[in-house]
Amino acid sequence: MSETIQSYVDYAIELGTKQEVDLILGIGTNAVRNQIRFSSNKVDISKQWNENNLELIVVVGGNQLAIGEFSPRNEEHVKERVNAQIKFANSMSPSPFYQGVESTVSKFTPLVGHYDDKIDDYGENAVSVINSCINEAISEGAKRVAGSYFFGKKNVYLNSSAGPKGSHSSTSYNLTVRAFQEELDASGQGLATGCIPHSAEKKLLAAAATAGKFSRMHKNAQPAKAGKYDIIMSPAVAANLVGSIPNDANPLAVLMGRSALGDKMGEKLAPEFINVADNGLQPDGLGTSPFDDEGTPRQITPIFKDGVLVNFIHSTSSAKMFQGESTGNGSIVSFWTGSKLMAPAPTNYVFENGDHSFEELIDTNRKTIYVTCNWYTRYTSKISTEYSTIPRDAAFLVENGELSTPIKNFRISDNMLRQFANIDALGNDRVQVKWWEVPVPTWISTLRVKNCRLTTATQ
């Protein structure tokens, strides 16, 4: 933790408490982020950002709330921003969503296995690792390889006039690699993500090999035929589609009229082998931390147990509004441009691993396709969960227990809750997925869903 950013947070809290605010809470973040971008089989860019950021919450008049963030330059800058935010809070209308923050001072369990002690030296080898990934994809048959690799470290410090105080450090890496043939439609994707970059080379190479192999297998893809199919979803697709259902187990989404689960507590919505938790303490989880943005200890919150919706996640305020208890999910959440709110937000969605091998998943006599990647998921209605999405990269018909004809030019147009209920098998290959189509780190395996609707451009 940078001593400077910590001192700025403490100084802000000291200034606020002297001005008789109801609450002032500060979160200081010192981060070093790195990006390696590559295309046409070579590294294009290797960049590094150093960031110091301070987020402040000020409450006056019981529930007049102002949240802001800035990069502090010196104590005078901090003082200016604290005074401006207090003035802004006094001009705000009362917030119906604010009912207080955590006031209990807790001892937080230190994270284990979330900080790479070799991170400061890792950058020297990272370009070489990415070049190895490019070569791995080519060795599997790719003609062109592109993608991005992010890695870095983050130190977080929290101080609150309500009492809680704490700090933690973490590191992370995230690779997205795509491989192509001469024909643009023949492509494959590989993903790898986690917390310890220096020991991740094997996973990174495996992701690149997957991308290369699928691009080769997807050559000469044929237009798909519309109809009903069972779909075998790779972890990336499963995380984006059925993995989005836990997002609706959020009281803020309910209050905004954007949750399909608002009136379904206690209902069985999935098969008995579906168990999902919001796990703020998941080992190697990108969303893991010892405490939330209020200073409440993180915990494991079951959302679906034996297919039944059993819990929502909560902040202190939402818990009071819904007569529950905080689940350690309080977070400063951004809405649109410039608007922020302390509200419940997920950490890591963790689906229980299945017991089927990939060979068992494709050993079926039903009309089935295998989809490895999808982009641009769009909803007709968040409440009814009608949606469509575009499969990208490799997809295949499944025939006689094997991947057969590569296919292209189709959409999955269906109902998310119906698909959730129609999961009929879970793979035993659970991995962590996080990329631009899956913003919440999601631990999920390959899975099979019955009777899904495929549409094509001719319909």
Describe the structure in your own words:
This protein has helices at residues 3-17, 75-91, 119-139, 201-217, 235-240, 251-255, 316-321, 358-361, 416-421, and strands at residues 23-39, 42-60, 64-70, 144-160, 165-180, 187-194, 222-223, 227-233, 276-279, 300-305, 308-309, 330-335, 339-344, 349-351, 368-371, 374-381, 386-391, 395-399, 402-408, 411-415, 423-426, 431-435, 438-444, 447-455. The chain is an alpha+beta fold and 459 residues long. The strands form four sheets. Strands 7, 8, 15, 16, 17, 18, 19, 20, 21 and 24 form a ten-stranded mixed sheet that branches.
DSSP helix fraction: 10-25%
From the alpha-carbon coordinates, what is the Rg to the nearest angstrom? 23 Å
Largest sheet: 10 strands, mixed
Count of distinct strands: 24
Secondary structural class: alpha+beta
**Any idea how many domains?**
2
What are the SSEs and their pairings?
Elements: H1 3-17, E1 23-39, E2 42-60, E3 64-70, H2 75-91, H3 119-139, E4 144-160, E5 165-180, E6 187-194, H4 201-217, E7 222-223, E8 227-233, H5 235-240, H6 251-255, E9 276-279, E10 300-305, E11 308-309, H7 316-321, E12 330-335, E13 339-344, E14 349-351, H8 358-361, E15 368-371, E16 374-381, E17 386-391, E18 395-399, E19 402-408, E20 411-415, H9 416-421, E21 423-426, E22 431-435, E23 438-444, E24 447-455
Parallel strand pairs: 7-19, 8-15, 14-23
Antiparallel strand pairs: 1-2, 1-4, 2-3, 4-5, 5-6, 8-24, 9-10, 9-14, 10-11, 12-13, 15-18, 16-17, 17-20, 18-19, 20-24, 21-24, 22-23
Helix pairs in contact: 1-2, 3-4
